[in-house]
Design goal:
149 residues, mainly alpha, 8 helices, 2 strands
């Protein structure tokens, strides 16, 4: 299953692979470790970010609560953690709003430039790939369906 990676991560991965036999020689006593796998995030790493998170937060929280939480948490809002303590009926409504915003994002899902090439390189080196995301299962399934990764 091929995945995408940022330029920074790609540079790291490529830097861990020997470029020639001479480069793969090591000093006595040095243990060489082989990169066995890479775990990727989905939004902004494997796929171009298309989800309108501020719209999602506003739909779930309302404008006032969104602005308050944004001011308190300038690095980002953990929407799932926030609604975790809500009563079940309010959680269902929130999850429906999140699902709708994510559904709209699926219509614009795009693979990140360089993803296919990176995945091919990882495959050729027999380096396993994994995906970890808070995206919905339908988003992950569509990613695999559209891009074969």
């Amino acid at each position: 299953m091929p995945l995408l990676v940022s330029n920074c991560a790609k540079s790291f991965i490529l830097s861990t692979l020997p470029k020639s036999k001479q480069m793969s020689r090591q000093a006595p006593g040095v243990v060489k470790t082989r990169l066995r796998g890479v775990v990727f995030d989905m939004d902004g790493t494997l796929t171009v970010p298309v989800i309108d998170f501020p719209a999602m937060y506003r739909a779930v929280l309302g404008d006032e609560e969104y602005l308050r939480l944004k001011a308190e948490n300038p690095s980002g809002i953990d929407i799932l953690g926030h609604i975790d303590g809500w009563p079940p009926h309010k959680q269902r409504k929130a999850f429906d709003a999140i699902a709708e915003v994510e559904r709209q994002g699926l219509e614009r899902l795009q693979i990140m430039p360089g993803c296919a090439e990176l995945c091919a390189m990882l495959d050729s080196k027999k380096i396993r790939r994994g995906l970890i995301t808070r995206n919905t299962k339908s988003a992950v399934d569509l990613f695999h369906e559209r891009f074969g990764h």
